[in-house]
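2024-03-11 09:14:02 DEBUG pipeline.ingest accepted 1 chain
2024-03-11 09:14:02 DEBUG pipeline.ingest length=708
2024-03-11 09:14:03 DEBUG pipeline.predict start
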Amino acid sequence: MNVVPRTRWIAWASGGFGVATALTVLAGWWFDIPILRRIIPGQPPMVVLTAVGTLLLGCALLATRPGTSRPIRQAGRWLAAAAAAVGLAGLLRYIPPGQFQLDDWVQRLVFGPLKPDTGMALATAASVLATAVGLLLQGAGKRWLRGLGTLVTLGSLVIAAVGGLGYAYGLDAFHEEGMFSRMALVTATTLSILAVGVLFSRPSRPWVVTILGAGEAGTLTRHLLPAVVLAPLLLGWLELHAVRTGLIEAGTGTALLVIVLTLWLAALVIRMARNIDRRAIAERRLRETLRGMNEALERRVEERTRELAEAQDALVQAQKMEAIGQLTGGVAHDFNNLLTIIRSSIEFLRRPNLPEERRTRYMDAVSDTVERAAKLTEQLLAFARRQALKPEVFDAGERLAGVATMLDSLMGARIRIVTEKPDTPCFVRADVSQFETALVNLAVNARDAMGGEGTLSIALACDRPKPAIRGHAGAATHFVVLSVTDTGTGIAADQVGRIFEPFFTTKEVGRGTGLGLSQVIGFAKQSGGDVDVSSVVGRGTTFTVYLPQADAQADAQADAQADAAGTDAELEGAPVEEVDQCILVVEDNIEVGRFCTQILHDLGYGTFLAQTAEAALAEIEAVPFRFDAVFSDVVMPGMGGVELAKRLRELHPELPVVLTSGYSHVLASDDAHGFELVRKPYSAEQLGKVLRTVIARMRQVRAAPWEI
């Protein structure tokens, strides 16, 4: 709780009381009204100098209370200094030889001379001086000065309170001699209230915050403080009055006072303990309530989290179903077209007496269609970023020039193609086929965006940094940058974030699969780069492909060594005319296995077909060194092809194993765990080339121990 309003009210009430009392006394002297001089009938009056000091203190307290402006506070400090001067002047009266009597001079100046044995009391002068000094020091910059001011003000309060208690207890002798002689009751009361106002006028004091705060300490203090302070005073007055009236003896009164005070303090302690107990019970109930609310909130959060998770799962499932629907509208359409060509060609080939020219044309159509289907499969794998790439170092500018020539016929006569590339080579290490496919996909996408008419700009640059793209950090290393810009309709802002999603397309059903841009970003990501896009609706779009720049010399040497090794192996593994090499084919699909063995027979190999990996192991163990190589599918019931290859590597490390698969997770593995891999669908030429290489390598290994 903010205690400033309470401290401001205490300062205002104390200062106002001091000002009102002083003005009342001065009015009594001015108008010669005795009752106003002493306020309390039968008591000594307050002298004029004391009234002036009290008036100055009251005004100073009002001016320096919390919330006043700086000029007013400065004026209040001057008033406090004047009050201190008044108190100091009153003290000089009691310093020998006692000739300095300012109270008498002030009294004589306005109202006539003081009566004998009257004037400002020593206690009054000390209290006025101490209160004024305390008021001045409470605004000091140093902490120890502010603490000293508090102690001085407490001393003033003690002096004034003792003077007042002398009247309360009827101690006439107390006011006849000593420092409290001639101190009026109204003076003691007013100075006590002013001292309390000064003590509570600063809310920054810790004990002020404790007493006036809204916490438990403040509440308990405000409840106990009046009883602790007033009860002993009241009991002392009652005991003294009873002794004076003869009701009890002095010793008995003292004993009763001690007993009553003890019981009173015990009652206060019990009350305080009960309050603490009640608060503890209330806090315990509150904690239980809060615990229950917290548990309910946690249950609600868990339920809400579960609902959100279920909604997220439903959304993901809906997105999957949407992707499947788009796939059936795009990819399935393209596959149906390819299957139509194959089926029609086969029906024509079955006709008797078919001319050789037409037979050749239909065979070529089937072969070309199979290649197109394989390309579409590659795109499906590339957008998933699980395509098995074959990286090599090549000059991107040279490939760009070759693709640009092909694009002239692909784009049409109404699209002007502008290419820009540096004079120096831009080497990258990536899959050449995927690089060209990505460039063609970007060009086709631009052609469709321009409606077959406009300008297609293709620019190539080297030694460029990669900026931050879609929240991914940039890179200061060297990149080759390929930019494809069109003058088409542009891409809407709400669609830019989705253009790389698989199957997402704005084209009509059957006009596109939505895999082109997915292939581009999949290829770029797998190659260590990224793709950025910027578009303005109605003006065009720019796709920027970033590929890591290669060290041409080092990478070219590595590729040359690999090519040389492969060439040597192929030369040494040239096919022989006689059938003296046997291949173990492991394929669970009987039809695929038959086609594979037929291809191998046509290549001049002997074959044995096993439909499981377990059967293949049994054949090898039955007749060791019977087979020159093993050609196995990867995904099979029971033991898979990779596990079979590892077992054979342990049992027969010299026996070469070639794996084949069409699954993306196999193609994305690290070269199929170190074994040669042929991707489905494969041709007889591809299979024969791999087998010749591995068999030649096997012969080199077997011949090595006897070579000198």
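2024-03-11 09:14:41 DEBUG pipeline.report The chain has three domains: 4-214, 389-550, 571-706.
2024-03-11 09:14:41 DEBUG pipeline.predict end
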